[in-house]
Design a protein that fits this description.
By secondary structure, this protein is an alpha/beta fold. The protein has a domain of 137 residues: 3-Layer(aba) Sandwich (Rossmann fold), CATH 3.40.50. The protein contains seven helices and nine strands. A hairpin with a 1-residue loop joins strand 8 and strand 9. Helix 2 runs parallel beside helix 4 and helix 4 runs parallel beside helix 5. Bound molecules: adenosine-5'-triphosphate and magnesium ion (MG).
Length: 245
C-alpha cells in the first residue's frame, strides 16, 4: 500500500535539546497509529512537524498532496471564560474552510455538527457555555470541532488524558468509526486501553524504538518499511509500564 506520510531520518533540535533524532517511519491511508513514549520523548514534536508548525533540523518529511490534516492539540489555547457555547466552538471548525468575510454556516454544517454532537452525547447540552463543561465534555467538543473540517488525517495529542472513563470510551468509539475513512495518529499514555483501538504503535524516545516482537526490542532506528506493520497482539505490556504517568 502506498504511504501518504513519510519521515526520512528526521532530526529536530530546539537550541541545545535534540527532541527527535533520526526518525523514519511511514503512514498509510486509514492507519490508526498510537504515538507512545516517555514524557519529553518527542511525541508532540512529531505532530508539530507534521503540521509544519516547526521545520526539521535534518531529514525530510514527505506528505501526499491530497492530505488534509486536522489537529487536536495537547493544550487548549482558548479562554474558557469567553461566553461561547459548545455549538459555537464546534461550528468554528468550519471557519478556516471558508472565506472569513462571508462566514456563515449552511445547513450541511449544522447537520454534520448535530450528528457528531449526538454521537458524543453532547447534543442535549449544545447551548451550554464552554466554561461550564467537565473536562470530558470539553475534550469531546474540541474533537468534534477538529472533525468539522474536511480532513482525511486527524492528529490528536493526548486526547484522553485526565478525563472520565465514559468520555474516553465514547471518544475511542467515535475514532474507530471515523477511522473507516480517516487516518488517525494519536499521542497517548494509555497504552493498555488503546491496544484494542489502534492498529499500530510508534514508540518514540527521541529515537524510534521499534517493537516487532518480544525478542527484538529497542532498535534505535527502525527499518522504514517495517515500523508500523507490527501486530498489536505482540505488544508486551511490561515493556511499556515504565513510561506511564
Ligand atoms: N519550543 C521548545 N523549545 C525548547 N525545547 C522544547 C520545545 N518544545 C519541546 N522541547 C523539548 O523537546 C523535547 C521533546 O518535547 P515534546 O513536547 O515533543 O515531548 P512529548 O513526548 O510530547 O512530552 P510529553 O509527554 O510531556 O507531552 C523535550 O525535552 C522538550 O523539553
Ligand atoms: Mg507532548
Amino acid at each position: 500500500m502506498d504511504s501518504i506520510i513519510e519521515f526520512r531520518n528526521v532530526k529536530k533540535r530546539y537550541d541545545e535539546v535534540v527532541a527527535v533524532d533520526d526518525v523514519s517511519f511511514k503512514v498509510n491511508k486509514k492507519d490508526f497509529i498510537a504515538i507512545i513514549g516517555p514524557n519529553g520523548g518527542g511525541k508532540s514534536t512529531i505532530l508539530k512537524l507534521l503540521l509544519k508548525l516547526i521545520e526539521p533540523t535534518e531529514g525530510s518529511i514527505l506528505i501526499d498532496n491530497d492530505v488534509k490534516i486536522s489537529y487536536v492539540p495537547q493544550k487548549l489555547d482558548t479562554d474558557l471564560s469567553f461566553p461561547i457555547s459548545i455549538m459555537d466552538v464546534v461550528l468554528s471548525g468550519r471557519i478556516n474552510q471558508k472565506k472569513i468575510f462571508f462566514a456563515k454556516y449552511n445547513e450541511d454544517d449544522i447537520k454534520k455538527a448535530n450528528e457528531l454532537l449526538k454521537k458524543l452525547n453532547l447534543y442535549d447540552i449544545r447551548h451550554k457555555q464552554i466554561g461550564e463543561l467537565s473536562g470530558g465534555q470539553l475534550q469531546k467538543t474540541i474533537i468534534i470541532r477538529a472533525l468539522m473540517s474536511d480532513c482525511n488525517v486527524l492528529l490528536l495529542d493526548e486526547p484522553t488524558s485526565s478525563i472520565d472513563s465514559k468520555s474516553k470510551k465514547e471518544i475511542y468509539e467515535l475514532l474507530l468509526e471515523i477511522n473507516k475513512e480517516i487516518t488517525i495518529m494519536m499521542v497517548s499514555h494509555d497504552v493498555n486501553e488503546i491496544t484494542n483501538v489502534v492498529k499500530g504503535f510508534l514508540y518514540i524516545n527521541t529515537k524510534i524504538h521499534y517493537h516487532s516482537d518480544s525478542e527484538n526490542v529497542n532498535h534505535s532506528v527502525c527499518p522504514i518499511d517495517k515500523l508500523i506493520s507490527f501486530n498489536r497482539s505482540l505488544i508486551d505490556d511490561s515493556y511499556f509500564s515504565g513510561m506511564k504517568g
